[in-house]
Amino acid sequence: MTTSDPTRILLADDHALVRRGVRLILDSEPDLTVVAEADNGAEAVSLARETPVDLAILDIAMPRRTGLQAARELSRLQPDLRILILTMYHNEQYFFEALKAGACGYVLKTVADRDLVLACRAAMRNEPFLYPGAENTLIREYLERLRQGRPLPDRAITEREEEILKLVAEGYSSKDIGDLLVISSKTVERHRANLLQKLGLRDRLELTRYAIRTGLIEP
Questions:
Q1: Which of 40, 47, 31 is nearest to 120 (CA)?
Q2: Ramachandran class of 123: left when φ > 0, alpha when ψ lies in -120 to 50, beta otherwise
Q3: What's the maximum distance between 2 C-alpha atoms anywhere in the chain?
Q4: Topology adopted by domain 7-143
Q5: Percentage of the chain exceeding pLDDT 90
Q6: Res 152 pLDDT > 60
Q7: Per DSSP, what are the bridge partners of residue 9?
Q8: What top-level class would CATH report for the domain 159-213?
Q9: DSSP classification of residue 208
Q10: Do 159-213 and 7-143 have the same topology in CATH?
Q11: What is residue 111's predicted lDDT score, i.e. its pLDDT?
């Protein structure tokens, strides 16, 4: 890509109306163009492999894979790809997870018309973008953790367990999950048992509630 070419964007959100609105915002700018759209995280990863893109904008809550799960995989596959997370959530836990997943920005959907273009340009300059007000929230959280001697929040479960938890909560059977992740049904059952034990939960219903609380799926 030369300096005069527009930034090629992959846009992933499971709501078609949101994608349409975001695309209108982006395509109205001469230096930005949406070249691919996905309605789930797994499709976003697949499209990024097939289509030359400079920037991925990922909704945080999507089927099959969340934006954070997709961001982690894309960061491993394409370290030079810039990633922005698009979200409804004012949540410092998600923000820290987004940074650890390789994202360089975190944009609230409620103000996307104001902030998204700025975030795209900041990302392409390799600069971080925080939604207005995030700095104060995050600095307060960081200072409070330092005062209490606590580290930054850790992941309660592994990436693979998170993948399986999300699919279980979305209603997939062990066989379906095994087919999607190219592992055996027995391995899926073992991961599921580990999840129940780690999280102190009893069944699929409680796993689903946990997935909703942690933003892996929407209620």
A1: 31
A2: alpha
A3: 56
A4: Rossmann fold (3.40.50)
A5: 41
A6: no
A7: 34, 55
A8: mainly alpha
A9: H
A10: no
A11: 81
24: closest CA among 10, 34, 9? 34
Whole-angstrom Cα distance, residue 124 to residue 70?
19
Q: Average pLDDT of the chain?
A: 84
The strand ranges marked E within 55-172 are: 55-59, 82-87, 105-108, 129-130
Question: Any idea where the domains of the chain sit in the sequence?
Answer: 7-143, 159-213
Q: What sign does the dihedral 206-211-215-219 (CA atoms) show?
A: negative
**Could you tell me the two tokens for 48?**
């990024």
Mind listing the pLDDT tens digit for each residue in 66-109?
Answer: 888 999 999 999 999 999 998 876 666 677 778 788 888 888 88
86 φ, ψ (degrees, to nearest 5): -105, 130
What single DSSP character describes residue 149? T
pLDDT of residue 43: 94
Distance, CA of 57 to CA of 158 (rounded, Å) = 24
pLDDT beyond 60 at 154? no
Q: Cα(126)–Cα(95) distance, rounded to whole angstroms?
A: 17
Model confidence pLDDT, tens digit, residues 35-58: 999 999 999 999 999 999 999 999
Q: Cα–Cα distance between 95 and 101 in angstroms, integer? A: 10
> What's phi and psi for 55, nearest 5 deg?
-145, 135
**Arithmetic mean of pLDDT, 125-138:** 71
DSSP 110: G
Report the C-alpha gap between 79 and 186 in whole angstroms: 33
Residue 85 and residue 68 in contact, taking contact as beta carbons nearer than 8 Å: yes
